[in-house]
Amino acid sequence: MALLFKSDVDRPDSWIPALRTALPGMEVRKWPEVGDPAEIDYALVWQPPEGFLASLPHLKAILSIGAGIDHLTRDPKLPRHLPLVRMVEPGLTSGMTEFVVMQSLFHHRRLLDYLDQQDRKVWRELAPVAAWQRRVGVMGLGELGADAVDRLVRLRFDVAGWSRSRRALPGAACFAGQEELPAFLARSDILVCLLPLTEETDSILNAQLFAQLPKGACVINVGRGEHLVEQDLLAALETGQIDSATLDVFRDEPLPPDSPFWSHPRVVVTPHIASMTIPETAAEAMAEAIRTLEAGGTPPGLVDLARGY
Ligand code: GLV
Predict the structure, then answer these.
(1) 67: Cβ below 6 Å to ligand 1?
(2) Is 144 in the pocket of ligand 1 (CB under 6 A)?
(3) Which CATH architecture has domain 2-89+277-294?
(4) Which residues have a Cβ under 8 Å from the Cβ of 145 and sit 6 or more positions away?
(5) CA-based Rg of the chain, rounded to a whole angstrom?
(6) Is 68's C-beta closer than 6 angstroms to any atom of ligand 1?
(7) Residue 182 contacts by C-beta under 8 Å, 6 or more apart in sequence?
(8) What superfamily in CATH does domain 91-269 come from?
(9) Active site residue: 107, 108, 110, 224, which one?
(10) Active-site residue 80, yes or no?
(11) How many angstroms separate the alpha carbon of residue 68 from the centre of ligand 1?
């Protein structure tokens, strides 16, 4: 059996040995040395070229190096009949939770204001707000969202989650579906977007949504750039409807030098690093997914393409 690894952003010198250790008996090949395409059973990929997966005639399953699978579904030639497995691995999950917690605390403790004061050599205390008085709302309650909610609850924030179908998460109020979105937004002082990118969620962070948040809310987008209507956020920052934002993902990556976000005083920009797949734990998770598929089972992260995630 052979597995092909393809990514231009993940380090093959860590991945290839990790995959060989996790999958003894599997031949691991590194793009672009595909060899005979008919010999590839599994493809572990990030942003493969359009049509490439369809050119592997005996492919048994597609494994995504990222939690998101929009880099695959945008390929019109994606072999949709094959099992597609998103990355579910502890390194990616805890990395995302760290980032969400860090940024929630950053906005909660008004670090932007204190950094601004530092610039101006101003020594002034701002009115404190207790964590349980700060309402954090997490959109998207999959593997990543649920873990972030758990940690935010343990920090004693007043946490709610919103998802397409109802989830039950200890310590958090769970809202579901379009009809409960307004109530969820109305109680989100800090809004975290961890949604999958689908037709329904494309451009969901828009002017109409921002208007339903409490005035002066913060937005943390760690989903996809396409979730956000960038002009709408800039306008909401201008009026103060949104106080500040953390953006890790953008429609155009790398973020172009002329983007107003780079120098916006109320925006934290990071280069799509909120969480990274960790080769050692990810290779183990993918090996387990392959064993499960070979045994005819359902691995964690198996995507329902009809649903889009
Ligand atoms: C990163 O963006 C991922 O999908 O894991």
Answers:
(1) yes
(2) no
(3) 3-Layer(aba) Sandwich (3.40)
(4) 138, 139, 161, 163, 192, 194
(5) 21
(6) yes
(7) 212
(8) NAD(P)-binding Rossmann-like Domain (3.40.50.720)
(9) 224
(10) no
(11) 5
What are the extents of the domains in the chain? Answer: 2-89+277-294, 91-269
Is 301 near ligand 1, meaning CB less than 6 Å away? no
pLDDT in tens, the chain (309 residues): 999 999 999 899 999 999 999 999 999 999 999 999 999 999 999 999 999 999 999 999 999 999 999 999 999 999 999 999 999 999 999 999 999 999 999 999 999 999 999 999 999 999 999 999 999 999 999 999 999 999 999 999 999 999 999 999 999 999 999 999 999 999 999 999 999 999 999 999 999 999 999 999 999 999 999 999 999 999 999 999 999 999 999 999 999 999 999 999 999 999 999 999 999 999 999 999 999 999 999 999 999 999 989
- β-partners of residue 150 are none
Q: Rounded to two decimals, what is the model's pTM?
A: 0.95
- Compute, in angstroms, the gap from residue 15 CA to the centroid of ligand 1: 16
How far does residue 121's CA lie from ligand 1's centre (Å)? 39
224 tagged catalytic: yes
Query: Position 9: which residue type?
Result: V
**Fold agreement (2-89+277-294, 91-269):** yes
SS (H, E, C) 192-237: EECCCCCCCCCCCECHHHHHCCCCCEEEEECCCHHHECHHHHHHHH
